[in-house]
Amino acid sequence: MSTPIIDERCEIAGWTDQTPVIRSDRFHDETAERLVGPHYAVYVEITDAASAARAGAPPHWRRPWRCIGLCSRKLMTMQTATQTPLLRVYPMQAVAAASEAVDRR
Fold it and tell me: Whole-structure pTM over 0.85, yes or no?
């Protein structure tokens, strides 16, 4: 399984088989750095079957494949807030309180 490297045109510019290194608060991959410069790890959707297979999709997968890609910082700065993936998270206290409520039942 390989990780796609995405350029500022939102196209796969290359692939890496290396595990990214964490530097400060970001992933760093030498191949991605060489191909697209500074980059971020971002959830991407691949629609091409051959590329999806290379990124880890099971054999005969026919739907878009979602995985982590290493995306150009230029691409990410062109995105608007509505195009950037958003995960809703809750404070730890809320999760703990909900767990305790379930345990008391």
Answer: no
